Each structure stands twice: as C-alpha cells, then as structure tokens.
Amino acid sequence: MKETVNVSIASQAFVLDKDACETLSCYLDEIRRRLPREDSDTMDDIETRIAEIFRERISSPMQVITLDTVRKTMAQLGTPDDFGEITQETSRTETAAEEKADAPHRLYRSRSDRAIAGVCGGLADYLHIDSTALRILTLFLILFAGLSIWIYLLMWLIIPEEPRTFKLRR
C-alpha cells in the first residue's frame, strides 16, 4: 500500500501518491529556478496547465494520480531546460527557508490536518507542536479543567481557514 498526499494545484484538489508528489515538486522547483523571481504568472500558468492535464487523465476526482501520470504530464509540458537557463542558484532547502522567512507566520485552521474543524491542526502548526498531543490536551482541558467547548467553537468561527495554495503536505 502506497502513502498518498493531498495537494492543491491551481486551486484544485488532487490526491497523489508520495513518489508522484515528490517528483512533481522537484520538477516545479527546477522550473521555478529557471524563471525570474518576479515572474509568478508563468508559474501560475504552468500549475494551471498541470491541473488541466491531471483532470483530463483521471476519471474521478478521488482517483490517485500515480508517478506514471506525473511523468507523462512532465513529458507533455517539456523538461525544465525548455524553460531557460538556471537563473536562481539556490538549493531547494534554501528556497523553502527563504519563502518561510519572508512569509508572515499566521494562524489558520488547517485544511489537511483536521479532525473536526482544523482548529487544533492549525494551532499545532502555528506553535510547531504535534497536533495529536494538542488534541489530547484540548480534550483533557475541556473534560477536566473547565475549558468551555464554546471557546473551541468561537475559535472555529474567528480563525480563518488556511488559503488554498500549491502546498505539499506530508
């Protein structure tokens, strides 16, 4: 049995197997390195085209996209070399670290790590702790320490849901 990953590509939800997700992520990173930093429109167009190709190739929205489908899509779009020479000499980890440092750290309800409304998953991500431990702590506080369920419901209403972006979840 293979592990699957839920991703959002061009604001469309897809389920990819783990190998396909990693391959697609590396492919997009290689293309991103070849485009000027200020050229986000081209990356948006590429992601939109990938989403269109995936929708053409799968019969059901719940069907898992395999490594073979990703490879065929990459062959259809072309190699990263077709997008030009490398303009950004940063490694994948450096790029991710830069994006994380540049982006403000905001509290959101999680779209992928949710049991009820994503409140605990979002808080865990914000606080950099395990979501399961936070859920157990929250349940304990509600049952034994007098924390009101109304606080959870209020947080559900106040905390915005995580924006839909191309974000790989593991």
Summed up:
Helices cover 53% and strands 8% of the residues.
Description:
- This protein has 170 residues and is mainly alpha-helical.
- It folds into two domains: 4-102, no CATH class; 104-163, no CATH class.
- The chain is built from seven helices and three strands, in the order E-E-H-H-E-H-H-H-H-H.
- The protein has helices spanning 18-34, 40-57, 67-77, 92-102, 119-127, 131-144, 149-158; strands at residues 4-9, 12-17, 64-65.
- A three-stranded mixed beta sheet has the order 1-2-3.
- Helix 1 (18-34) runs parallel beside helix 3 and helix 2 packs across helix 3.
- The protein is elongated, with a radius of gyration of 19 Å.
Tag the structure with descriptive keywords.
170 residues, mainly alpha, 2 domains, 3-stranded mixed sheet, 7 helices
Rg: 19 Å
Going across the biggest sheet, name each strand in turn: 1-2-3
Query: Please, how many helices?
Result: 7
User: Alpha-carbon distance between the termini?
Assistant: 16 Å
Q: How many discrete domains?
A: 2
Outline the low-pLDDT stretches: 166-170
How much of the polypeptide forms β-strand, as a percent range? Answer: 5-15%
Count of DSSP strands: 3
Quaternary structure classification = single chain
Shape: elongated
Secondary-structure element pattern, one letter each: EEHHEHHHHH
Protein structure class: mainly alpha
Sketch the major β-sheet.
Answer: 3 strands, mixed
Average pLDDT level: 78
Fraction of residues in helix: 40-55%
